[in-house]
# Entry
Amino acid sequence: MWHDRPLKDGYDVVIIGGGAHGLACAHYLAKEHGVTDVAVLDKSYIGSGGSGRNTAIVRSNYLTPEGVRFYDESVKLYEQLAAELEFNVMFSQRGHLTLAHTDGAVRTMRRRAEVNRLQGVDSRLVFPDELAHICPQLDLSEHPRYPIMAALYHPPGGIIRHDAVVWGFANHADRRGVHIHQQTEVTGVDVRDGKVRGVETSRGYVAAETVLNATAGWGSTIAAMAGLELPIATAPLQACVTEPLKPFLDVVVVSGSLHVYVSQSSRGELVMGASVDPFGSYSMNSSLDFVEGLAGHVLELFPFLSKVRILRQWAGLCEMPPDFSPLMGFTPVEGFLLDVGWGTYGFKASPICGKTMAELIATNTTPDLIYPFRLSRFAEFDLVGEKGAASVGH
Amino acid sequence: MSDPTPTRLPERPGEIIDRTRQVSFTFNGEIYPAHPGDTIASALSAAGVRTFSRSFKYHRPRGLLCGAGHCPNCLVQVGDEPNVRSCQRAVEQDMDVNPQNAWPSLDQDVMSLAGLGDRFMPVGFYYKTFMKPSQLWPHYEQALRNAAGLGVVDQGTPWGAYDKQYLHGDVAVIGGGPSGISAALEAAEAGANVLLFDNGPQLGGHLRWRSDSDDTSRKDLLEKVQSARIEVYTDTDVLGWYQDNWLAAVRGDRLFKARAKAIVFATGTIEVPTLFDNNDLPGILLGSAVQRLLNLYGVAPGRRVVVVTANRHGWDLAADLLAAGVELAAIVDERRTRDHPASVDLAAAGVPIYNGSALTGARGRKAVSAAVISEIDDSGNPIGPGRVLSCDTIALSTGWEPALDLLYTAGGKSVYQENRAEMSVDPVPDGLYVAGSANGADLLQARVEDGRVAGRLAAAHLELTEPPPQQELDKLALELSKEERRTSDRISAPDGKKRFVCFCEDVTDVDVDTAIAEGYDSVELLKRYSTISMGPCQGKMCSVNALRLCSRIKGQSVQETGRTTSRPPTTPVYLGVLAGQNMEPVQVSSIHDWHLDRGASMMVAGLWLRPEHYGDATAEVNNVRNRVGLIDVSPLGKFQLTGPGAPDLLERLYINQWRNLRKGRVRYGVMCNDEGVVLDDGVCARVDDDTWYLSTTSTGAGTAFQWIQWWLQSGWGGNVHLTDMTEIYSAFNLAGPHSREVLRKLTKRDLGNKAFPYMRIRRTRVAGVSCRVWRIGFTGELSYEIHVPSSAGLHVWEALMEAGGEFGIAPFGVEAQRVLRLEKGHLIVGQDTDAMSDPLGADMAWAVKLEKPDFLGKRSLERISVDGPHQRLVGFEMTRKHIVPEEGLQIVKPQENGKLNIIGWISSSRFSPTLKKSIGLCWLPSDIGSEPGATFTIYQDGRLEEARVHHGPFFDPGGERLKS
Ligand SMILES: Cc1cc2nc3c(=O)[nH]c(=O)nc-3n(C[C@H](O)[C@H](O)[C@H](O)COP(=O)(O)OP(=O)(O)OC[C@H]3O[C@@H](n4cnc5c(N)ncnc54)[C@H](O)[C@@H]3O)c2cc1C
Ligand code: FES
# Structure
């Protein structure tokens, strides 16, 4: 696997953040562009941020043509990732359902289905008769408080073993000579004459002319070290799991109206979550309020789970850009690059982010696929609005 | 017939079963007897049952281990309930208990064959296999999935009856053992309101089942508790500490939520197993589990017991076993000293005693048949050949782990005390105190004293008393430091058999070794890779052993190795308990029943239920256009702003101008967020100088209220007060050419166009009730919106219906209203706008007053107005007039290569009964949208349909009907 190596005093490329994004970028830099003088720095252990805390939903049924195209490339990479990394990331394409309980939601689902379909993504609106086959556990009668009118069905969507993705990338990057430095916190970004020169770390100064900020929940604080203010608000997102149960739920079920989503992991646990906490904060404390609300909404969908037990809950940090789309690419500070703004939805994009950011670094040009996510879109008012597809169903 | 309860003992002092009565239950299809007071596990043990279920990965037989609800080994299925800790669940008559994870049977589990091939299932095995060929992965996956999980969910289980209760206290004491009780007493004495929680059926903690105390000390403490001002919650598990001392506790089906100013954690210790070969065999129990069996339930753990220990507790246990007449095969003590008072009697009774010896392994196939012990040298390594002691039970009393998880989640930092081989917390956060055996105190007197001091400190934190003098604290600390060590950190050397570090996940010491060698060498990575501590026990049984092992392999201290983050809940908790009662609120208007009586078809709109139509929406549309209709619009958000600060606030909240609005006048307004995105729209009236009354969309009412509150509380709240009137007023819109005639019958006010023109508000009596009447209209017809106190809503509604009888009045629902407004080209926020829509693009440019000094969204709208919006919301008509494209369909531009590029979408569409053609609203690129008559293409079910841009209302473009 990966090794502890001495921290050099300079690298061609420094990647801040040892999550799936940073490590994927290191992997593709080394593998596809032969750039190996690369250091990935993480203040804790690899995967300690969102990459080890997310609920591992992977899908591409987004709302905008730009988003759908981008996430679809990521799903395709994920499909091949186990073979590429020789590490089973257990991508389980068991299907993804987003329920619509109001006519407004049906309209939004149809809109997404149409956008998806036109981009060649397998995604369609299904109604209760078909839903009964896809997810027989749902109460499709008229009695529930929020009867299910239809759902957006996305067969290639599913879940993945998040840690395995992190480890797989780390392993391969390390094998090609990338240095992974855990417990190495970046405390400052050295910018002179509009150019990045290196980073200050808890273990000393590291010089680099290319620095990638891939710190997700902390992205705006690192950007601030380089003198950049990002249009981002950070909020906690919580999740929880139950004790393991014999498998009974195949698809991933998301309900926007009920603010909840549920999937059953390959270990048999139910993995559940909701939307971000209603206020911004850098706290990673779990709250009682969250599990109480979540439990009520889960039972609203599946009353028969009342005697199933919650085993543990946790929180992670999410940076929320106003349009629910990421911030990727160049910044006004030369050499200081962004792969942030990943909100509640970034895990599914890890491979494609790594690949495109590696290409950007190696060629010094922005790949078309991520051009819509450039930082300057805010100044140009050319936003990529994904709120309708990303606020609950991460 | 053979004895059905061969290991039930004669009555024991202090037992809690009722021998005068019997109940019976089934386990694995067979009937078993029990007494009231028995747990499932005690009753099964009395019957000699050893294996309860099978393990998670290797399907190994597992049975009673900790007897305290901490481990995964006694999990069973009870009726429809999975993963029940059988040592904690009281037996009930006819209970249907079944093993878990066993197929085809508990005795002959096919999956346990996996155990034979475990050399091929090392840690991380899943990550390294099943990848090739990749097309087979879905099949592998299915097989892996089928093997996963423990208990079974019954899809017939109802939501059940759960509830919640709030508790308030000055001091919460968690744990009702001797230290917790004395902490509670001390705090109460100082005048604090005390909440005392314990998860046992009675207070007393270990005094209930451990014989190191005479019963008088417990009785004495209990009596004092009764007379003190202490709220006692037994059978109550405190399972979470949350920010600001917010505690979650569960008793049965009830969730307690308690806020306390100070908390004493007297949470005791958890007895933990050690590592040795075959350490998971049924028949290997922790000493405290054996003592509970003996002393609470009168059950012998087996017929021939080896007691393995490293502290006084093992000797206490041996004495209990001797007294109960259970055969002792040996006492094996790591220590070389033999100073326990019971040792004399035990020796006299002929019990073999091995000092300076330790357990190195267990033998047996489905249950223990022998213990292998060996003498050890000073570093704990075995010397000389081992000795095999035949037995059917091994009682392990070699170590304790303070139960500090709650305190860790509360911010306590863990410190590993090498000399005691236990964790402690330092520093303990302010206002939190730890006491008793959780704090390392072992002897009864020390626990009581430690609790007393903690109680005093908690009371002093509330300034109810003085803290204890420093000498007293020092003295106590000194005494605690002199306590004998009670925990051994010895790990015996492997001897070829499996040694489980983690029972939940079947992780062995070899797995830990391998994982670390592979680079997963920090505890958090090790946990995630090996899945140690991720199962039902959440690390209670395994984390300290895993840490010791990890530190040894890495050659670090345990402290350097660190521990993984503790997360709530500390005990798994039902979703039902967290959810509470099934009470999703439903909002209905004051005339809900009337709608139902008239056969209205109801629809969900936010929290509300609203009539969608009363049978025929088209007829309802026609009736409004030709005669008069009445719609219940009570769900509209209705807010009153009072105070001289109101105009300033409105100027900032809305993009429109307000200051110049005169009394009695109404204006349409739009709110945006900082990004210039439309949040809500509605009308706002100046009722008098300092009173403003505004309405918002129905579904957006809650959000709008929060939004306004947010700003009021963030500095814009000067001189203005916001009141939510949404439910106080019911609201109806009377619309249609005859609406004036209808209303005239019920009011004295002059309704003429001069006295009450369009976009005005008046207070007037309608059918004798004082109402606010607006002359506005969404439908394009002459209309009045009547806001009436909800208590009189039905009266006024019925009066209107009656008065309208002669004019052909009929109620209309949301569907008809949508058609009517679409004919007028009005947008609906949230339907025709989304999280990207700005008012410039959404055809509301006229409302945007960029010249105002400031308002929410101004900066963004200024920027957008430079180049103009990229997209525009416009009306459209279909070339084929009868085709209604569904809402949500995409507008495309066919490319030369045949590809269809998305350029816009349909947000509203209907067939207009008035105009006899299909109409709608859609978003288009500004260049196309700005050109009336421009054609574009809609993608519908694989076909392409042509449509044309239309600007302005489709019906009555001059608005004459509205103003008539
Ligand atoms: C509860 C939850 C559920 C989620 N569910 C999903 C989901 O189902 N699907 C999905 O696609 N996405 C989901 N997400 C979002 C997803 O987790 C993130 O978008 C994604 O993991 C981001 O990956 P990353 O590699 O960019 O960042 P991270 O994995 O967060 O990595 C950032 C790293 O930067 C390090 N770091 C921070 N500051 C510094 C510093 N100063 N110096 C050095 N290192 C630093 C951190 O330690 C961290 O390891 C969820 C998030 C949460 C919290
Ligand atoms: S024996 Fe019941 S939980 Fe451990």
